[in-house]
Write a structure and sequence with these properties.
By secondary structure, this protein is an alpha/beta fold. It is built from ten helices and 13 strands. A six-stranded mixed sheet has the order 10-9-8-11-13-12, sandwiched between helices. α4 (160-171) links the parallel β9 (146-152) and β10. α3 (130-143) crosses α4. The longest helix has 48 residues, at 309-356.
């Protein structure tokens, strides 16, 4: 890759202003395209380079989100002879798509940084699930990027119009596109999102066609693809890492591993459940739990069929999940704050010791 203009990679005034202090210290900038176990592949103005995190940055990082993620802009120094460039700092993120890490740990994981548009992919086969679309929408709105619902594999579905209607019921105005990479249907509608310097992230379960779509957009077999299992339509894990791909016609696309279970880290329910939240404001009590309180507008709507019962149950499930995660985050914040000050005190003591020498 030979790049002569950083705006091709998404560089703008926001990153320019945040980079000034590093430029004064002689650093250059780059954007993280791929994260390996111990190093990163970074796009720069002169091409792709391999980079590693400086010891200082790694030492001062309190948690994983303090280190580079795919999509981040970073301040780097030149590589020593035959070595890798060094990442000294991560520039502030304009947007970040985050989720709770898998497992029992309460920790935030950055799926992708500085994303402009998020394609929420779900295939029009047995994988189609409006409840999963709701979950993706919650996180997408929280990220700061613009969500777009993409229904893939329309050539395998004989009820496309019905599926679009079902998705519209939960999309709350978010654009919906039904596509088929096999027939080419709907692909022209996606082209407008891939403007020069714009970054689109693809999110969805395994087997929904993310890698296939990227290969189609890139015009080459850039990413490995596999077919879904015939007996249950479930996808196989093809992408095992996040990768930022620069498209030949402009724009960048971020491929992510399939995420069948996407645990919420934070979220904004009114963006996805504005109908229920509006009704809740009409309840007699401001702290109404919509159980047995008198004059509950939500229960009245459920009884009248104005609100779909499954949609309300989904809303309650997300509300409880977010409250639980908020409590876990508060507890973790206390621990991380103590860890931060302990580390700062240790660094200050080390500096003082060195000065006395």
């Amino acid at each position: 890759m030979n790049v002569t203009d950083l705006t091709t990679l998404g560089w703008d005034e926001f990153f320019e202003s945040n980079f000034k202090p590093y430029a004064q210290n002689g650093y250059t900038c780059g954007r993280v395209a791929l994260e390996h176990k111990n190093f990163f592949r970074v796009y720069t103005q002169s091409g792709e380079v391999l980079a590693q995190v400086s010891g200082k940055l790694r030492h001062e990082a309190v948690q994983r989100i303090d280190l580079p993620a795919v999509g981040d802009w970073v301040a780097i120094s030149a590589a020593p002879e035959g070595g890798r460039v060094v990442i000294h700092a991560v520039l502030p993120r304009r947007t970040s798509f985050a989720r709770k890490t898998a497992g029992a740990r309460t920790e935030e994981q950055i799926v992708g940084a500085n994303i402009d548009t998020v394609f929420l992919l779900t295939s029009l086969n047995q994988d189609f699930n409006v409840r999963r679309i709701e979950r993706y929408l919650i996180i997408a709105w929280e990220s700061g990027a613009n969500p777009i619902i993409v229904l893939s594999k329309s050539d395998l579905c004989d009820r496309v119009a019905e599926a679009i209607t079902e998705a519209q019921a939960v999309a709350r105005g978010v654009p919906i596109h039904a596509i088929s990479v096999v027939t080419g249907d709907g692909l022209e509608d996606l082209a407008r999102y891939f403007k020069r310097g714009q970054t689109v992230a693809l999110l969805g379960s395994s087997g929904v066609g993310k890698s296939t779509l990227i290969n189609c957009l890139a015009g080459v077999d850039h990413l490995k693809v596999q077919t879904v299992r015939e007996h249950d339509d479930r996808g196989r894990h093809t992408t095992t890492h996040r990768e930022l791909v620069l498209l030949p016609e402009g724009g960048l696309v971020l491929d992510t591993p399939g995420m069948r279970e996407l645990q919420l880290w934070d979220g904004h329910l009114p963006s996805v459940f504005d109908d229920i939240e509006t009704l809740a404001d009409e309840c007699l009590f401001s702290d109404c739990h919509h159980q047995d309180e008198p004059q509950c507008a939500v229960r009245e709507a459920l009884a009248a069929g104005t609100i779909d019962t499954e949609r309300y149950e989904s809303y309650e499930k997300f509300r409880k999940e977010l409250k639980y995660q908020a409590r876990r985050r508060d507890k973790r914040s206390e621990i991380m704050e103590k860890k931060k000050w302990k580390k700062l005190s240790r660094l200050a003591a080390e500096r003082a010791r060195l000065k006395r020498r």
